[in-house]
Amino acid sequence: MSQDSPSVGFIGAGQMGMPMVARLHAAGVAVTVFARRPEVRDELAERGIAVAADAAELASGVDIVEICLFSDEQQQALLFDGGVASAMRPGSILMSHVTGSPALYESLVEAVAPGVGVVDAPVSGTAEQIAAGQLTVLLGGADHDVQRVTPVLSAFASRIIHAGPLGDGQRVKLVNNLLFTVHLRLAGEAVRIGTEFGIDQQRLVNAVMQCSASSLALSLLADRPFADFGGSFERFLRKDVAVVEAVAAELGVDIGLLGDLAHGAIDAG
To answer: What is the pTM of this model?
Structure first.
């Protein structure tokens, strides 16, 4: 990154956040991280990454505040109770990778100081894809804010998609995860049937991936048991399906068969 590239204050160096921070640091982004857990602070220090002692103080001194937490509840506590939203300076941007309610992001426009941009930036992919720089990021926000955060995101994302106005990144991500939840369960059932037919799992997946029933969910099961893979995603998908249902209820949208299948897939997991 050039010397005039934006400075980043990163909050949430966990399973997904840590490889993001590592990629940002390796790309030459001026990134400083706030982390509560001592072991995370130690790991960051070992990597030569700057660590902040206070989240609000960090937010007041950077161009982009980048958040990677698990839920809306965690994010609300950080932004409002922790003072991050009110500490941001005019001209800076709040960008969050948390998958949650679009309404939260829209409410943030009123919570931050005038001149602070807000971008919702949910992601699609795994920690391994982040480490390889192959993540997909869905952006919701004004054109000029999206343009400013895109060079930072390119440190770990190969596909950066401007989905629309603020909140649309979330809306696309929620629909995606609803569909992916169903795909994953169906792929697991297909693998079970195939193996009970006596077909080697990897051969089965490799063959079907060349046919009309191919899917990303199926490809992920080529060399691992469905129970292992599904279990690693369950808490994320369960949370996201609950958010979809809540958002749909607020808007009076019937998610119908897809919602029933996704809910059944989670409960069956």
So the answer is: 0.89
